[in-house]
Design a protein that fits this description.
Neuraminidase, Immunoglobulin-like, 2 domains, eight-stranded antiparallel sheet, four-stranded antiparallel sheet, 32 strands
Length: about 500
């Protein structure tokens, strides 16, 4: 019996040695470290916006109407976090930006700017920048704000009243508000945003949540003059004085709904979601948006976009490209394990990311009522799909490290494709499912690019790719995240 056991152990050891994975599989924290920062005793830092101030200070506005500044945010815990209450009694600010000595907050009813005139760390001057949009007592009338764009504008995106009406002026719209106080209506068709920001090229995007006319949550491109898909706020076109053109046609109310591809033909102003974030699979409530402009100081994803996730306490990574004049691209899992539901997300040019949020409402996987956390790159490069680009016959994948060419075979890849019903009803199941055939057409000589042929490609569908069989050339490691979700609005010629 003892001899039999010993023989089994020897065989098991040999099999382990012959296994294609020689090293321990890495985890997210090997590459990106989350540091929760201690918050002031008794304070509830449910952050809705984060801004970077001079002298290394960080500011955060909270859902409960306070604005705090923080010293030692970059060096904590080596140095203690020093919090100062800068302002309070604001109306649920969900956007914060710094410019020329002023701190701008986007509140439910207005954009306000504040200044500490006497240098004691608290705001002394409060000025209304613009209040040319409406608000009432409805719980759902949130207003989210961006940083400043290159033209001196803050972009504000306004939730509907409840989920189905626009009872206050410009609810369901995107507005541009200049530092000089002027306001420009910019786009309609919004439902329930969770944040607004820019990609590395400076174009504006917002996140919209699943609901009426939104089959799933998504990242949407705010093309000026566009209609984003939900018609409930279109009643306010007559007040826009032609700033963004004529009121678009309403989408059909027919039973069973329609599809985005079809309605793009019927409604010329309609811009489909750039990147759909499949509901529950990747998250339930996308939020803040920030581009990595650190030129590699945050790791190998320079130029890509990061999106917060409230319910599942995550941050997503998004690769965007323009095809035939429309944005589209792929969402990749990036980092999870935050203590609460991320809402505000911002990153310095030195590649340090901060996030803050709340578990209010739907709750959050992180479990805590609020969080303020920092993310630093460790300097190690994960084995990941770096980019996923659409081609006329499939997709081109690039990687952060060389792939093991022996594993770059058809069997290593699986794909499903599906879309959502475009309808007045709340959300949608995945519909019109397709199972494409995926074949490896070529692997580049340097081992960092794979061209996949996909038959068929389906315009308007999410193409969900799983690459579990792929391995790295060094260490024969699997991908840190093997899933990718590409929204194919246009097929390249």
């Amino acid at each position: 019996m003892r001899s039999s056991i010993q023989s089994c152990l020897i065989i098991a050891t040999l099999l382990a040695m012959l296994s294609p994975t020689f090293a321990e599989e890495p985890k997210e924290s090997d590459f990106y470290q989350i540091t929760p920062i201690e918050t002031p005793e008794g304070a509830v830092i449910e952050g809705g916006g984060i801004a970077f101030l001079p002298e290394g200070k960080v500011a955060v506005c909270t859902r409960r109407g306070q604005v705090w500044t923080l010293d030692n945010a970059f060096t904590y815990p080596k140095e203690p976090a020093k919090w100062t209450l800068f302002a309070e009694y604001l109306h649920e600010p969900l956007g914060l930006a710094w410019k020329d000595g002023w701190l701008y907050a986007v509140q439910r009813p207005e954009v306000t700017r504040m200044k500490d005139e006497d240098g004691d760390g608290r705001a002394d001057i409060f000025e209304t920048v613009n209040d040319d949009y409406g608000v009432n007592g409805n719980y759902h009338e949130y207003t989210f704000g961006s940083q400043f764009d290159k033209d001196g504008n803050i972009w504000a995106v306004l939730c509907l009243t409840g989920s189905f009406t626009a009872d206050s002026l410009y609810r369901g719209w995107v507005l541009r508000i200049n530092e000089d106080g002027t306001m420009l209506p910019t786009a309609s068709g919004v439902r329930s945003p969770g944040g607004i920001g820019f990609n590395a090229e400076g174009d504006t995007f917002y996140t919209d949540n699943q609901g009426a006319w939104n089959g799933s949550s998504s990242l949407k491109w705010v093309k000026p003059g566009s209609f984003q898909g939900n018609p409930n706020g279109n009643i306010w076109y007559e007040y826009a004085d032609g700033a963004i053109g004529e009121r678009p046609k309403n989408p059909p109310l027919t039973e069973g709904g329609s599809r985005t591809v079809k309605e793009r033909e019927n409604i010329p102003e309609y811009i489909p979601p750039a990147v759909i974030l499949p509901h529950q699979k990747v998250g339930n409530s996308p939020t803040g948006i920030v581009a990595d402009t650190s030129a590699g100081k945050f790791g190998p994803f320079a130029g890509q976009t990061f999106v917060g996730e409230q319910t599942q306490s995550k941050i997503h990574r998004v690769f965007l490209e323009k095809v035939n004049g429309l944005y589209q691209g792929a969402m990749f899992p990036f980092l999870e394990g935050f203590q609460s539901g991320n809402i505000a997300v911002n990153m310095t040019d030195e590649g340090v990311l901060f996030t803050s949020g709340s578990n209010r409402g739907w709750g959050a996987r992180g479990g805590k009522n609020h969080n303020f956390e920092r993310v630093n790159w460790t300097g190690k490069v994960p084995f990941e799909i770096h980019e996923m680009r659409a081609k006329s016959d499939g997709f081109e994948l690039t990687f952060t490290k060389r792939v093991d060419k022996a594993s770059a075979v058809d069997a290593s890849f699986k794909m499903t494709a599906y879309t959502y019903i475009y309808q007045k009803a709340y959300g949608s199941p995945e519909v019109d499912q397709v199972t494409p055939k995926v074949s490896v057409q070529s692997v580049s000589e340097d081992g960092k690019t794979i061209h996949l042929t996909v038959t068929p490609l389906t315009k308007g569908h999410v193409h969900e790719l799983h690459s579990e069989g792929l391995r790295s050339a060094e260490g024969k490691l699997s991908l840190l995240h093997s899933a990718a979700y590409y929204t194919l609005n246009e097929i390249p010629e």
